[in-house]
Specification:
With about 90 residues, the protein is α+β, with helices and mostly antiparallel strands. About 30% of the residues lie in helices and about 20% in strands. The protein is built from 3 helices and 4 strands, in the order βαβαββα. The protein has a 4-stranded mixed sheet with strand order 2-1-3-4, with helices on one face. About 20% of the residues are buried. The C terminus is likely disordered.
């Protein structure tokens, strides 16, 4: 299972989401807009996600900082499985 976080430089909400994921011990791969992926590619991949950050997991993608609680609840309640996810650079 892999968690991807789509971010951009200067995005306060993006930093907040990454901090919360780290705090809860959830590893993730960060994908940076304009460094790792273009804006057009993000829009094509996530047409229903209107803003960054976008957190993409095995159960779907959620966008915007308020959605992180849904992600944390889902990942922490992963039927007791240990999350073995490699953190991105």
């Amino acid at each position: 299972m892999e968690v991807e976080v789509y971010t951009r430089d200067g995005c306060v909400s993006c930093e907040r989401v990454k901090t919360q994921l780290r705090f809860h011990g959830i590893s993730f791969k960060e994908i940076r807009l304009d460094e790792d992926i273009t804006s057009a590619e993000v829009k094509e991949k996530f047409p229903n996600s209107p803003q960054l950050p976008i957190v993409n997991t095995y159960f779907g993608a959620l966008s915007g900082a308020p959605e992180v609680e849904k992600i944390l609840n889902e990942l922490k309640g992963d039927f007791g499985k240990e999350l073995l996810i490699e953190e991105g650079l």
